[in-house]
Amino acid sequence: MSETLRTLKEPLEKIVSLLDGIDKKLDLISASVSKNAEQTPQEIRPIDVHEVLNLQGHLQKTALTLMGLEKATADQVSSKTGRGRAVESLYLNQLVQLGYAKKERVGRVVHFSVAK
Q1: CA separation for the pair 74, 113 (Å, rounded)
Q2: Which CATH number does the domain housing residue 63 bear?
Q3: Residue 33's CB: how many other CB atoms inside 10 A?
Q4: Number of neighbouring beta carbons within 10 Å of residue 92
Q5: Which residues contact 82 (CB under 8 A, 6 or more apart)?
Q6: Among residues 78, 82, 86, 91, which one has the fewest Cβ atoms lying within 10 Å of its Cβ?
Q7: CB of 59 closer than 8 Å to CB of 94
Q8: What is the pLDDT of residues 7-43, one digit of tens each?
Q9: Is this prediction's pTM over 0.70?
Q10: Host domain of residue 92
Q11: Alpha carbon of 19 to those of 16, 48, 54: distances in Å?
Q12: Cβ–Cβ contacts within 10 Å for residue 51, how many?
């Protein structure tokens, strides 16, 4: 291994470790949001392009992606948006709280869907 690679290896490993920690914390936040959403079920309302435009920018991409998929997991949404799974999970749970999406757990897998 060249000297340059050796000097870069340690800081890169630290960055990966920090990102793993952030991902775990986002999972905890998402679980907390999910518990709150499950305790206060809301009626799901149809979402259209006009409603999407009224959402905050970070939720618009998630909502449009979910509308295209109709029913999906956070992992499936994240593969379409290019953002992390934990981030999409957080955004999808926000859409649930706003009443634009429905959350359904099947075993360990959580599916999100929008009203047609």
Answers
A1: 11
A2: 1.10.10.10
A3: 17
A4: 29
A5: none
A6: 82
A7: yes
A8: 888 888 999 999 888 988 888 888 777 666 555 555 7
A9: no
A10: 3-114
A11: 5, 35, 31
A12: 13
